[in-house]
């Protein structure tokens, strides 16, 4: 019998204030990234201080939250934004985009670099290792909300979602857990192991872009696209795949550039 998902997305209610698990997952992601960043700043080959780690996490958090919301409204729900511009601030109604958060985070890293005179790719290499923590907790938040669910399936671990937009009696792929495992755990393992030694600037950023893009592109094949968007091309290409493909190309370019730098 399939597991029935009926988790309450509200963790605690304090009078009129509801504290959602999704928000808690974001906080855990940023806290985990800060902790790991401070730990890594103690390594001999890492030129970061604990204070700089705290600052870059703050910059990154602002960039991810603002960019994630703007990205969702522009990439996935522009019609709704055009009809009601106030939706841009109603984050509690749901809707955050990884790719929008990525763009916002990149802008934040650029601003942080201007403040500290750190090389942009040195910053992104450092932050790339921390990012899968937030990706993991964010996908767990998606799972708790019963959103971003997969296609109908008869695999032994298929789940029936009774909450969120997926409310149905049809067993489905828990695609958000696939993404938590790949974008969170596997991606973290790859980047963390590579980062234990010194490498040319840009290599770790390139690996992040390549593997995130591959993992996201792959999972999209069994994930239901946003209902109001559907498939974007060929009856199988999703918006997530369209946005992830350039990441793979950018990652390849960064890795090739880092190797040329190493050979020079």
Description of the molecule:
61% of the residues lie in helices and 6% in strands. With 264 residues, the protein is mostly helical.
In terms of per-residue confidence, which ranges show pLDDT below 50 for 5 or more consecutive residues?
Answer: none
Let me know the number of strands: 4
Q: Work out the helicity level.
A: 55-70%
**General form:** globular
Q: Helices and strands: which structural class?
A: mainly alpha
Instruction: Characterize the main sheet.
Output: 2 strands, parallel
The H/E string reads EEEHHHHHEHHH
User: How many structural domains in the coordinates?
Assistant: 1
Mean pLDDT rating: 88
- Radius of gyration from CA coordinates: 19 Å
With strands numbered from the N-terminus, the spatial order across the biggest sheet is: 1-4
Distance N terminus to C terminus?
60 Å
Strand content: 5-15%
Note the total helix count.
8
Oligomer: single chain
């Amino acid at each position: 019998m399939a597991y029935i998902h009926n988790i309450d997305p509200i963790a605690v209610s304090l009078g009129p204030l509801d504290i959602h698990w999704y928000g808690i997952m974001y906080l855990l992601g940023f806290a985990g990234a800060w902790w790991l960043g401070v730990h890594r700043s103690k390594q001999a080959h890492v030129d970061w201080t604990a204070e700089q780690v705290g600052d870059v996490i703050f910059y990154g958090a602002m960039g991810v939250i603002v960019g994630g919301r703007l990205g969702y409204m522009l990439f996935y729900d522009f019609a709704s934004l055009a009809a009601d511009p106030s939706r841009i601030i109603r984050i509690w109604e749901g809707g955050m985009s990884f790719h929008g958060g990525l763009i916002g985070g990149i802008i934040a890293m650029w601003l942080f670099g201007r403040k500290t005179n750190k090389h942009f790719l040195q910053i992104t290499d450092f932050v790339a290792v921390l990012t899968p923590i937030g990706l993991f907790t964010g996908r767990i938040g998606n799972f708790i909300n019963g959103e971003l669910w997969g296609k109908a399936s008869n695999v032994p671990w298929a789940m029936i979602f009774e909450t969120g937009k997926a409310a149905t009696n049809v067993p489905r792929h828990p695609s958000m857990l696939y993404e938590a495992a790949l974008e969170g755990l596997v991606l973290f393992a790859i980047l963390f192991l590579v980062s234990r030694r010194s490498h040319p600037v840009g290599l770790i950023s390139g690996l992040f872009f390549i593997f995130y893009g591959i993992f996201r592109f792959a999972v999209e094949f069994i994930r239901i696209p946003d209902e109001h968007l559907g498939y974007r091309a060929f009856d199988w290409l999703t918006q997530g795949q369209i946005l992830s493909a350039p990441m793979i190309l950018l990652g390849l370019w960064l890795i090739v550039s880092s190797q040329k730098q190493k050979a020079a």
